[in-house]
Amino acid sequence: MANDVAFLEAGALARLVREKKLSPVELVGIYLDRIDRFDHRLRAYITVCREEALETARRAEASVMRGESVGPLHGLPFAVKDQFAARGVRTTQGSRLFASTVADRDATVVARLKHAGGILLGKLNLTEFALGGAQEFPFGQPRNPWNEEHDPGGSSSGSGIATAAALAAVTLGEDTGGSIRSPAGWCGAVGVRPTWGRVSRAGVFPLCWSMDAAGPLGRTVEDAALLLGVIAGRDDADPTTSRRAVPDYVAGLRRDLSGVRLGVINELVAGADPDMRSALEAAAALLRRLGAVVDSVSLPLVPMAGAVFMAIADSEGAGLHRPWLRERGAEYDRGTRRRLLTAALLPAAAYHQAVRARALIRAQVHEALRRHDALLAPMAPTAAPLIASARAPITSRDEAARRFFTRRSFGTPASLAGVPALSVPCGFTSSGLPLGLQILGRPFDEATILAVAHAYEQATDWHHRHPPLD
Questions:
Q1: What is the model's pTM?
Q2: Which of 52, 303, 324, 414 is deepest in the core (most CB within 10 A)?
Q3: Quick check: is 123 catalytic?
């Protein structure tokens, strides 16, 4: 029965708390019990705020019992990627360099979740400094809850695991080139990368100033919509945030798809394996039956997106990390250190070429979105690979390109274009690994991609399946 409660939608849990049918203390206890039972295997968490969460839950329970007005997340346990500052809690960035650093204030998004009544359960594992490609995780190897020998995706690895395995009600991640959507797709969750500037990054350790975006992960589209509505909006502490009004994302989910124009990105479908292609084709057919107009669209430069992204993002990261690389380089994971040092050697001419290529990719994405309300693509070329595959030797130039660029070309077009995108479960491989459907939208039109994803989700049963942990 506790497991059934743990997997309930976030909105349903919040309603039960408001109606005094579920105690916040009981709910926090359910998730802490699941963390105790499963996280020694999955390694989603770096830090668990056990006593703090229980004390906050007791105060939340007392507020409800007194009949006080409460926020939309009142009593709801959440966890955040350990790239987000949380006052009084160590914030490691997944690195030995910050292993004992304790934040003195909350990131804006953490503060907003708390203000809405959420209860912080803890800080979640990630690839070092949110870069991706880490070879050794100082706080334990994150593992896919559907098959522990497989990669959960990165860099928001713990966020994907904790959401899919119900080790928290909802989570936050950060997405520079797919770091929310990749773990959502490979772990069978919903993850949203908002439009660049929709959500504050104040208190979020940076990787790439021009592409970093904080966003929600949930077990359903409604979970993600609920969380996005709480964290989105202008923040004076982050001057890049937009002043645009934030719509009611949950209220907009039940939009009729009749006449909604969707374009399937040819190049990304062609680059996916048979399981992923079949799932994408089935999703497109279902969306047609739901009333959408679905056709194909060509974005010829998209296969270059992974290389273009790495040239820009890794170079920005190398500039940020230069002092630490010089003084404390031995403390970095060898994979992280190799990527940053390589990027530091990139010639200015190559960086400028990548910036120009980004502008061309951005133009192609925006042009396609002028003719379509949203775009469809696989979230990744395959389901989650084996963890060991990332540590295999690179034997050729083609192998290097495939490993470093090909997969990133699926998640990075939205990042390069600055548009919102999400991943929603769209099936499983024959071996039982989740597959993710990616939906890209127009700038600041998260409402449309959430509505398309919700309509698809409600017409399928993928979100009712849970990892076989017991």
A1: 0.97
A2: 414
A3: no
